[in-house]
Amino acid sequence: MVDVPELVARAREGQPRAVARLISLVEGASPQLREVMAALAPLTGRAYVVGLTGSPGVGKSTTTSALVGAYRRAGKRVGVLAVDPSSPFSGGALLGDRVRMSDHASDPGVYIRSMATRGHLGGLAWAAPQAVRVLDAAGCDVILVETVGVGQSEVEIAAQADTSVVLLAPGMGDGIQAAKAGILEIGDVYVVNKADRDGADATARELNHMLGLGEARAPGDWRPPIVKTVAARGEGIDEVVEALEKHRAWTEEHGVLAERRLRRAAGEVETIALTALRERIADVHGDRLVGTLAARVVAGELDVYAAADELRASLTEGE
Amino acid sequence: MVDVPELVARAREGQPRAVARLISLVEGASPQLREVMAALAPLTGRAYVVGLTGSPGVGKSTTTSALVGAYRRAGKRVGVLAVDPSSPFSGGALLGDRVRMSDHASDPGVYIRSMATRGHLGGLAWAAPQAVRVLDAAGCDVILVETVGVGQSEVEIAAQADTSVVLLAPGMGDGIQAAKAGILEIGDVYVVNKADRDGADATARELNHMLGLGEARAPGDWRPPIVKTVAARGEGIDEVVEALEKHRAWTEEHGVLAERRLRRAAGEVETIALTALRERIADVHGDRLVGTLAARVVAGELDVYAAADELRASLTEGE
Questions:
Q1: Does the beta carbon of B96 lie under 8 angstroms from any beta carbon of chain A?
Q2: pLDDT of residue A123
Q3: Which residues form a coiled coil (chains A, B) (predicted)?
Q4: Å from B302 to nearest chain A CA?
Q5: Are residues B196 and B304 located together in one domain of the fold?
Q6: Which domain holds residue A280?
Q7: Do the chains contact at B273 and A33, CB–CB below 8 Å?
Q8: Percent of chain B clearing pLDDT 90 (strictly above)
Q9: How many domains does chain B have?
């Protein structure tokens, strides 16, 4: 068993291996998961969490890397979490990230972590927030959560941020793909990357139209900006950081940040509770109980509602 | 409040209005739902339940009506349940059913009921089994459960039968549509209706190919028959009844009937229990509790797992 208080203390001191070890403990179904989360709880809530999503090929990792550079120049400690909900691999950086993130690999002010979230208690979308809490407790000022694709899980993960960034690139009918994937609804800031390519203006216009940005909004409403970047050359990155800071200020001013964090926590708590109940039904004792109850229903000894009551009662017995 | 034992007694005597009243009580969220189900439980398990599904236009109602006629000629009491998971209307026969079912409207040995299942405790798919139990308790020998479309709910409902019939008609690439809808996996008996039209043989061949009926099966395995009918003229209906009876005999002989009913009951009990738990979370007390827990998580006073434990504990308190 790991000495959790000791590990947390070392993570607070900025030891990368301690941070890595804590993330490993929380991303899987470690028996010490609860101990770790309980130890981290009082240390969390300070970091600013930015979600980044977009179709493969839009340059998410390059943009993330450029953002890391910008935040580092501003003296911030930065955490990067690259989440792949469909990958069974985790625990270390993927090759692609390693290459693109190599600028920051030796920087002690940057933590980079790839994680797979398959099989996590509470479902795919709820492993990332636990890793975010580790980085938060370890003293990161900004945490960038990057998802690999645009599936439902990716969108869910990216939406669990203080600010969500949606990336697009010119061509490929990307706007329509993004609309289909449902990511147009979650963006607080939009980035059209590879803006030196043909069609960048058209993509920005199409996006502007689809988002209804030309339409009137209530005063005080957030109007998502569209920022054009060439992340590989660092162009437009300062403007992205500026847009992020503006959004952050707006969410704080209007109580949106507090509301988002509350809603996120409520969703997490509900999902974890229901998943635990479902797993209890599926466990050996529960499974046998369901079978016994079903047999009594089929025999006409018990109706399904009374059987469901018995099942529910058994779920919290003996805990 | 309804006098449930009295109502059940009258339904047992064959009074159609008592049967209709009971179905109304079980299909909604009546406060007497549980009382009704408890009263019905000992009276159920005798009826043979047949599910019928297929795309709109294949002639499901006409086929159902013809099957009712065939079973009536054999002296059986028949219940018909037309389920529309997407319709907000319920409580009486829809116009279309009335017209097509008019042959049987005045027959005291036939109960016909259309039901919508929206908003039912335990989800769409679980309202139909309760109505089936009413018809079963009322003394129906055969219950035909017909779904209007081929969505996921319809497929689920049709699959909750002792025998599932999948209907197709020539043309319209119907086989491929059926495959997409997932109904090719649930058929115990396939019916190609409107078999007097061009393409009926092609549809049957295509179906035969898609089902892999030409392939070798283990001895004792069920090989779903494909029956061609012209239901509007009553052609092929006796063959369908014969196929149904064969499947029923096979399921009884191989323990499949008992196993299906057990699995169905287990699924129902689990779903009702989990839905009730989810609804408890969403109720006034629970909702406030989730909010309070979420606020403590955001404040760092509590971790999400400890919060989920508190939520779970509260779900069964004071019941």
A1: no
A2: 53
A3: none
A4: 6
A5: no
A6: 270-316
A7: no
A8: 42
A9: 2
